[in-house]
Write a structure and sequence with these properties.
The complex is a heterodimer of chains A (170) and B (497). Chain A is mostly helical and 170 residues long. Helix content of chain A is 59%, strand content 0%. Chain B contains 20 helices and two strands. Classes of the chains: A mainly alpha (170), B mainly alpha (497). Chains A and B meet through helix 1, helix 2, helix 3, helix 5 and helix 6 of A and helix 7, strand 2, helix 8, helix 16 and helix 17 of B.
């Protein structure tokens, strides 16, 4: 809960990531406005489908502007502190990229290979990214968790999940 | 007393063996996810929504209520034994409780937190029992313009209290509002912001947004800054218990914390953060041992924990009587009601009295169960903190995938989930609170509908919000909520200079 507004008079130079975030919010506001203008006017409605989106787009643009001003003044965002994070260490984006890649690959393969193999792939990539190097153990647990989840949801709760390669086996 | 007889019928519903079982499942799950890092009650309800679609609504809500209260109990275990708060409302518990634990008084800290939560939760539920029907009776007469103003007030106070910066909270809120706009407009039948993608015509399911921002975002963020060498968990020998002296020092802070927490939760000014801080300050002033504060004073755990739980009970008042959620978990409960075709609000007490009173009765039962689960079983919950993080976070991601995929059996939803995960990562990295976005997604469509109904009823006259007295009063409150904190900050800065 640091309050950036009571920082000393010597402000640090604007940080590039914070400026990019502010520009991103402005861009979102602009896109929303463009999207709003494409909504056809409703028929016979006093307040059409455009009114509320217009308010939201205008608000987003204003907030983006305020964020830009604050970033230019040198305010920078403090990264959140979570239960398992270490705020004193520099951030390493590689594990996060590995998780995202594993997730997207698993999602793409969910239907051809089946739910069990797709989610086992996701599980393995997260486990590896979090530093687990006993690969046999990790893939074993991944397959077990994926299989138990699959069976619990399909047999127990009656949801339908893609069986894929294991169709007929399960 | 009408409330009492309704409550008795509620107990008849909640005390059936099957519903007792659901309550037990709920409080156990709630404590579990409260203890575990990376997953909380709001996320758990979101994950369970597709699964519970086949349960009767009463049973589902009894379970959700258990998760809601259980998350509070479990959260305090984590902050006491691990010294890193999962939610902003447990900062104080982490501060004072962890100091106690380091002095070898973990059992007493856990006990005063659990018993304090029980006392506050029970008193809070009693207040809810009598306040809610009375407020519902008045709330029936609120016109659409004032309902919109009320939602506006909730939006602004939630954005301004969660996290440090009101500006960042508002950006998060508007992001949520924008997501809520995507899809077919129900009043005019026009497609909005669908980018020509047919999957978006039905809108973006809030479950995808919630799981993406909370679970996937958290998994990505923690991975990028993982604490090396494992968590520093304090060992706990034996049950959570306290001695006579601890009792003597705890009971007044429990009651004072409850008195502070409940109103803050019940007014749509949201957030358990402020009352916990207030309670801490108050207890330090009133204590005979002010020198112990900051070094592990039991009053500094008892008061804020009670405030936290009482405000959780208070949050249910605007949720049930006005359909106004003021926390992420309350927003999930609102969405669950809507999933069953029910609209929380004043009429719910008339149309679905059985359901509401069964839910309220189950809160009393859940509190007793939680006390029984948390005192003797404290060492079991503590051991959960030792689960190796690679396996824990991997499982969270797999459950998230099942939860989102089973909504529509669509891989497109999983890509959306990844997108919201990335955004959730960015929000943590750049200090945007997640809760306002969740409230925006869930309450946004309702706010738009009230807005349009109000303007249409006055045949296109937008000044209706200023002419209706209650609505005008609420708009002044909205303005005050935005301006007053800034003025106070400005004055504090001038005094320092």
């Amino acid at each position: 809960m640091t309050d950036p507004s009571v920082a000393p008079a010597h402000r640090p130079r604007p940080s590039v990531p914070d400026l990019l975030v502010a520009l991103g919010v402005l861009l979102l506001g602009g896109l929303l406005l463009a999207g709003t203008l494409q909504i056809p006017f409703g028929i016979s409605a006093v307040v059409g489908p455009r009114a509320f989106p217009l308010i939201v787009s205008a608000g987003t643009l204003l907030l983006g502007l305020a964020l830009l001003v604050s970033a230019l003044q040198g305010h920078r965002a403090e990264p959140a502190v979570e239960e398992d994070t270490d705020p004193t260490q520099p951030a390493d984006l590689r594990p996060a990229a590995l998780i995202l890649g594993g997730f997207l690959l698993g999602a793409a393969l969910l239907q051809p290979l089946g739910f069990v193999l797709g989610t086992a792939l996701m599980y393995t990539s997260v486990g590896y990214a979090y530093g687990e190097r006993r690969l046999f153990l990790l893939t074993g647990v991944a397959l077990a968790v994926a299989l138990i989840t699959y069976l619990a949801f399909t047999r127990g709760l009656g949801l339908s999940l893609p069986a894929g390669l294991l169709n007929g086996v399960l | 007393m009408e409330a009492l007889s309704s409550l008795l019928t509620g107990f008849e519903t909640a005390l059936t063996p099957l519903n007792l079982l659901w309550a037990l499942v709920g409080v156990t799950l709630g404590t579990l996810v409260g203890v575990l890092p990376g997953i909380g009650p709001a996320l758990t309800v979101a994950l369970l929504l597709p699964v519970t679609a086949k349960l009767p609504p009463v049973s589902a809500f009894i379970m959700f209520a258990g998760i809601y209260y259980g998350g509070m109990f479990g959260g305090s275990t984590t902050s006491i034994l691990l010294n890193t708060p999962g939610e902003s409302s447990s900062i104080i518990t982490a501060l004072e409780g962890n100091k106690m634990a380091r002095k070898g008084r973990a059992a007493a800290a856990l006990a005063t937190a659990a018993i304090g939560s029980f006392v506050a939760g029970t008193i809070g539920t009693v207040l809810l029992t009598f306040a809610a029907p009375a407020i519902a009776e008045v709330a029936v007469q609120i016109p659409p313009s004032a309902k919109f103003a009320l939602m506006l007030l909730a939006f602004v106070t939630i954005s301004a209290t969660f996290g440090g910066s009101p500006l960042r909270g508002l950006v998060s809120l508007f992001f949520g509002l924008a997501i809520g706009l995507v899809g077919t407009d129900l009043q005019s039948g026009q497609a909005r912001f669908t980018l020509g993608v047919p999957e978006l015509l039905d809108g973006i399911d809030f479950v995808t947004v919630v799981i993406g921002l909370f679970a996937v975002g958290e998994t990505l963020y923690v991975a990028s800054r993982l604490r090396q060498g494992g968590a520093n968990v304090i060992k706990l020998a034996g049950n959570a218990r306290m001695n006579r002296e601890d009792w003597r020092r705890s009971w007044k802070p429990w009651l004072r914390g409850t008195a502070l927490g409940f109103p803050f939760g019940a007014v749509p000014a949201g957030g358990a953060e402020i009352p916990t801080f207030l309670s801490y300050t108050l207890e330090r002033k009133l204590s005979n041992h002010p020198e112990e504060f900051g070094k592990g004073a039991i009053e500094g755990v008892a008061g804020p924990e009670a405030a936290n739980n009482a405000s959780a009970a208070g949050v249910l008042v605007p949720l049930l009587t006005l359909g106004l959620p003021t926390s992420a978990t309350a927003a999930m409960l609102l969405a669950a009601f809507q999933g069953y075709g029910l609209q929380p609000g004043p009429l719910l007490f008339v149309t679905n009295g059985d359901l509401v009173w069964g839910l309220i009765a189950s809160l009393y039962i859940g509190n007793v169960m939680l006390l029984a689960l948390n005192l003797p079983l404290a060492p079991v919950w503590a051991r959960l903190l030792l689960i190796p993080r690679p396996f824990l976070y991997a499982a969270i991601l797999v459950f998230s995938t099942v939860g989102v995929y089973s909504l529509n059996n669509s891989v497109f939803d999983l890509y959306l989930l990844a997108l919201f995960g990335l955004i959730g990562y960015g929000m943590r990295r750049f200090d945007f609170p997640v809760t306002p976005a969740i409230i925006g997604v869930i309450l946004g469509p309702a706010a738009e509908s009230q807005f349009r109904t109000a303007v249409q009823a006055s045949s296109g006259d937008f000044t209706v919000f200023l002419r209706q007295p209650l609505s005008a009063f609420l708009l002044v409150a909205v303005l005050a909520a935005l301006v007053v904190p800034q003025v106070l900050k400005w004055r504090a800065r001038r005094r320092k200079a």
